[in-house]
Amino acid sequence: MSYKAVVFDLDYTLWPCWCDTHISTPLKLHKSKKNTVVDKYGYEVTLYEDVVPIFEYLRSKNIKIFTASRTASPPTAKKLIKLFNLEKYIDDSEWGWGSKKNHISKLAGRNDIDPSEMCLFDDEYRNKDVEEIGVKFCYLPNEKLTWSEFNKHINPSHEH
């Protein structure tokens, strides 16, 4: 793999909802379901099962892990990341309104990585515009990060 960093969208990439509209704080871990968070009204959000193994794989290859999101509720996103215990994997994040090109440019600058050495996994096709700054766009048409999608974009010859 030739990337120095892999950037992940959050909503419908790492988990199956928009954290700024589908869930209400406070959030807490489910008492018995692994990788599941429960919101104020009992709505359950589960981390997609391949996220942690993919993050561990990237970490083992010394590839940086970034997140970029248009979320209108960064505190909720941050709480989900904390509850899902993803903080230990994520090297940097850029969230808020605006283009993912801007998010990734900021991440690249802060981390001294050329955008051409990065790729973005995202469920929204409109974010393909990151290719204008040299980032490889990895579209997730099924709104879910899986090993199959990851390998298709990153490591076509790698079977997992």
Automatic annotation (TrEMBL):
InterPro entries: HAD-like_sf, HAD_sf, HAD_SF_ppase_IIIC, MDP_1_eu_arc. One of its GO terms (molecular function) is protein tyrosine phosphatase activity, metal-dependent. SUPFAM superfamilies: HAD-like. It holds the Pfam family Acid_PPase. Transmembrane segments: none annotated. NCBIfam families: HAD-SF-IIIC (TIGR01681), MDP-1 (TIGR01685). PANTHER family: MAGNESIUM-DEPENDENT PHOSPHATASE 1, MAGNESIUM-DEPENDENT PHOSPHATASE 1 MDP1. This is Magnesium-dependent phosphatase. It comes from Ogataea parapolymorpha (strain ATCC 26012 / BCRC 20466 / JCM 22074 / NRRL Y-7560 / DL-1) (Yeast).
